Amino acid sequence: MNTDRWYYRVFQSAPDLIRSLLPGSAAANANTLSLDPSEPGDRLYRFEALELKELSHRLDGVLWPRESTGCAETGSPEFPVVLLEVQMHPDPGFRHRLAAQSCRFLQRHPQAEHLEMVVITPHKRMSLGPTRLPRLLQALLNEVHWISLEELSQQPNLDPLLNLLTLPVRPESELAASSQQILASRPELKTVVLPMLIQRFPQLSEEQIMVIAGIPREEIRHTRAVQDWLAEGRQEGRQEGRQEGEAALTLRLLNRRCGPLSEATTAQIQALPLEQLEALAEALLDFQGPADLDTWLAAC
After folding, report:
1. Which residues is 61 bridged to in the sheet?
2. Which of 88, 176, 280, 287 could be joined to 292 by an S-S link, Cβ 3.0–4.6 Å?
3. What are the distances in angstroms from CA 111 to CA 13, 182, 218, 257?
4. How far apart are CA 298 and CA 300, in angstroms?
5. Can you tell me the distance from the alpha carbon of 98 to that of 104, in angstroms, rounded to the nearest whole number?
């Protein structure tokens, strides 16, 4: 499941959640998230998906402090500017790309004086490239705060907002209780909870999804917004089905054109969005061997 877009929506809905993932806060003690449920989730931070245009690389998210913090452009020790990356699939080039994107961000925004980097992954076992890098890059990546969703989900009495982050990796048997806990405290998060439930339970009807989320069934008949969210979740599920089918076809063609692919290359291709898979399926017709594939992926 491609969940990057879902996390994009989570941090759009509640950008203040990033404070719980920074060092010295709930990343160390996941039960002490200091966000009042009566307060909006965007009082301290605003979310932006920032494109680094020269290489057409888009950061998953940049969390900028609000003007009310007094450090909207520069950040501060209490409210740093945060670069956010969500990496849910193996990628042998991820660490190098993260370092390059971070440096490119600083080049474009030299006014950022206090910067933190947060990377969300499903677990610590996933291969994201070499852990031993040149000293210059290693010093940069030593400052990254890695968030394992597997470890986060095992915390007892997890705050609802932190619990929200774990929905893509929780066992299906735990999704009903987790979803109901989240929505009991933050009903406005239906916009992100319902689409994820639909992706996790594509075989269930809208009414069954509403029961899992603990939402009265009659609400689906009288609330247009709920219908729109459910329809959007179905559309995203179909989009992911198309992505998986395109990835399978592209891999079969690449194995014929370039020979057997490594596990790392296969995982990298499976993680490509649909648009890039379609572009790769067209480009591979001109490939002469594996070197052409490596060049294409490096430029991706």
Report:
1. 84
2. 287
3. 26, 37, 51, 48
4. 6
5. 10
Are 59 and 74 in contact by the 8 Å Cβ rule? The answer is no
Integer Cα distance of 27 and 18 in angstroms = 10
Domain extents for the chain? 4-161, 233-299
Residue 79 confidence (pLDDT): 94
How far apart are alpha carbons 160 and 166 in whole angstroms? 10
Please give the backbone phi and psi of residue 56, each rounded to the nearest 5 degrees, phi first. Answer: 55, 40
**Angle, CA of 136, 109 and 86, to the nearest 5°:** 70
Q: Pinpoint the alpha helices (H) of the chain.
A: 4-13, 94-108, 135-141, 149-153, 160-165, 172-185, 190-200, 206-213, 218-222, 224-258, 263-270, 274-283, 290-299
| pLDDT for the residue numbered 76 | 95
* Alpha carbons 299 and 295: distance in angstroms, whole number: 6
| 205 contacts: CB under 8 Å, gap ≥ 6 | none
Considering only CA atoms, which of 220, 20, 171 is closest in space to residue 10? 20
Structure tokens at 3: 């969940």
Residue closest to 9 by CA, chosen among 226, 243, 236: 236
